[in-house]
From TrEMBL:
InterPro entries: CDP-alcohol_PTase-I, CDP-OH_P_trans, CDP-OH_PTrfase_TM_dom, CDP_ALCOHOL_P_TRANSF_CS, Phosphatidylglycerol_P_synth. The lineage of its organism: Bacteria, Bacillati, Bacillota, Bacilli, Bacillales. It is a multi-pass membrane protein. This protein catalyzes the committed step to the synthesis of the acidic phospholipids. Coiled coil: none annotated. One of its GO terms (molecular function) is CDP-diacylglycerol-glycerol-3-phosphate 3-phosphatidyltransferase activity. It holds the Pfam family CDP-OH_P_transf. It is found in: Membrane. It comes from Paenibacillus barcinonensis. The chain crosses the membrane at residues 12-30, 42-64, 129-151, 163-184. This is CDP-diacylglycerol--glycerol-3-phosphate 3-phosphatidyltransferase. Keywords: Lipid biosynthesis, Lipid metabolism, Membrane, Phospholipid biosynthesis, Phospholipid metabolism, Transferase, Transmembrane, Transmembrane helix. It catalyses: a CDP-1,2-diacyl-sn-glycerol + sn-glycerol 3-phosphate = a 1,2-diacyl-sn-glycero-3-phospho-(1'-sn-glycero-3'-phosphate) + CMP + H(+).
Amino acid sequence: MNLPNRITLARICLIPFLMVFLLVDFPFYPEPLQLGSLTLPYNQLIAVFIFIVAASTDGIDGYLARKNNMVTNLGKLLDPLADKLLVTAVLISLVQMGKLDSWIAVVIISREFAVTGLRQIALLDGSVVAASAWGKLKTVVQIVAIVLLLLNNFPFSYTGIHADVIAVWAAALITIWSGIDYFIKNKDLLHLSKV
């Protein structure tokens, strides 16, 4: 249990706290923060902070593991699992809050399951499916979309630009394409037998 793996576990442990602040209606919350015409409940602000901290640990644990030669099988299992748990938990919470259409959450989560399955096939085949540039871009755009949704499109709400909607659509499209890209580049792993 080295430092990178502890950081990954900490990311997983932050998920329940994130969901509590998103979904539990505490009666003792102060009045929402008013920024002109924009209303931001404090629970969402706390959730955004937790989400950003959790998402930022993804790069940190990987960097430390590679730099200090601490890459382990446990880390290879936990790191992608933590990422998927974090994104899945927030997407489902956003659907529950009425901030995200359920079909977009299903598309994004389905892609994550599909690529995870592909990675498992690769492991059984003795190979590794490395993260692609599209996969990394997908992660960044998903994080931006989630943050904008949790901040009620702040600061773009003052400009009339629906950056949250644009980011969600971009996240959905890039997520779909990155999934297709993984399968195209790794089609040999599927070993489709002839009937």
